[in-house]
Amino acid sequence: MLLYSAPASPFGRMVKLTARCLGQIDEIEVRATNTGDPDDGIREVNPLGKIPALVIAGQDGGDPQTLYDSRVIVEYLDSLAGGGKVIPVSGAARFEVLTRMARMIGVLDAAILVVYEGRFRPADMRVESFVDYQRGKIIRVLQTVGSPVYGNGAMPDAGEITLACALDYLDFRQQMDWRGHAPQLQDWLAGFAAAVPGYEATLPHD
Question: Which residue from 143, 166, 176, 205 has the least number of CB within 10 angstroms?
């Protein structure tokens, strides 16, 4: 399997951390990708030009298949592991995990928009009310996460993986001080970091 990603991408990290938890990381080749470079090749793989994208071999000698976005890839990796490892197979538990995952992906979307506002818009054209609106989303969501203790050992669920990726991305890009708004998550993240394989190895970096 070939994964198009970037070291700083929290969405790519979701996939890499899932693969490590499921024991699949050695089956994946990671290709460093620059989505801003029109010659990079990602746009030929994913016409949206977004990462992560996972290219897998076609069945019975057929053409390779490309999967995106991170949610689809995480579910695919879970299915390869037999299902029910990071996403429950069915029932209310499945939709509870998927909803937590979606909520944290929303946090990441908002966090990236804050980064883009500063990176791509000239200082005299930045819209602070837009940035405040995105930060408000992040704060509201993190304050809904009530569990102060991580308890799933070496096999987190997809919602927990995404939560950890979101918190670490906020630390990495410093869009806001999440600890000041959701201090209950400090111990949770410390417990996750201590228990989950590949946590340190997948931390975002430039």
Answer: 205
Provide the whole-model pTM: 0.95
For residue 13, the enclosing domain spans 2-80
Report the percentage of the chain scoring pLDDT > 70.
Answer: 100
Alpha-carbon span 139 to 69, nearest angstrom = 24
Are 95 and 160 in a shared domain?
Answer: yes
Q: Are residues 175 and 98 in the same domain?
A: yes
Burial of 161 (0-12, 13-18, 19+ CB in 10 A): buried
- Estimate the crossing angle of helix 158-173 against helix 185-195, to 10 degrees: 110
Looking at the fold, whether 129 and 47 belong to one and the same domain comes out as: no
